[in-house]
Design brief:
- This protein is an alpha+beta fold.
- The protein has helices spanning 2-54, 71-82, 84-88, 93-96, 120-124; strands at residues 56-63, 99-105, 108-116, 131-135.
- It has a 4-stranded antiparallel sheet with strand order 2-3-1-4.
- Strand 2 (99-105) and strand 3 form a beta hairpin.
- The longest helix is centred in the N-terminal third of the chain and has 53 residues, at 2-54.
- The N and C termini lie far apart (64 Å).
């Protein structure tokens, strides 16, 4: 019984292989065309991401001296920032995110929001009553990264088990 089953399986595989060989002349070019199409789409998508990263909206949020947000206001602000990729539309993931940078402005903590140009209206909406929304005076790409030369990296501390 096992020999008969093996023989049937072997003949079926042989028949499928012969049938596939007869169609091989157009399967190979079709596969190559699919690979070329995928590569072209990938290059286009990466170039689109680079172009979208080059034209982003930058907004500064500068709080007043009396700024003291409630937990509800902070939650609304976070929810609004979470909607930015949806409002921006069909963009590559790395170009649809919001970047937040914090700095001190006269002793007050200020925030710079950088996001897709398509979501500029959402980024410019005032979230808090005591925060001034200003257009940034420089493009988002003009911010220089911070480098710490000559400083050893932070060591990871492990808890010792007793």
């Amino acid at each position: 019984m096992a020999d008969a089953l093996n023989g049937m399986l072997s003949s079926l595989l042989t028949e499928v292989a012969e049938s596939a060989r007869s169609y091989l002349w157009w399967l190979v070019p079709l596969g190559a065309a699919g690979a070329v199409g995928w590569a072209a789409g990938r290059v286009w998508w990466l170039r689109r991401a680079r172009a979208m990263l080059g034209c982003r909206t930058v907004v500064d949020l500068v709080p007043s001296r009396d700024f003291d947000p409630s937990a509800e206001e902070i939650g609304r602000h976070a929810a609004r920032l979470a909607r930015v990729p949806t409002v921006a539309g069909w963009l590559p993931r790395r170009a649809s995110g919001v970047r937040m940078r914090h700095w001190s402005d006269g002793g007050r903590l200020a925030t710079r929001l950088e996001g897709p140009a398509q979501s500029a209206g959402l980024l410019r909406l005032p979230s808090f009553p005591d925060v001034e929304v200003l257009e940034a005076d420089r493009p988002g790409g003009a911010v220089r990264p911070v480098r710490f030369a000559g400083v050893a990296p932070l060591a990871k501390h492990r808890e010792e088990k007793s």
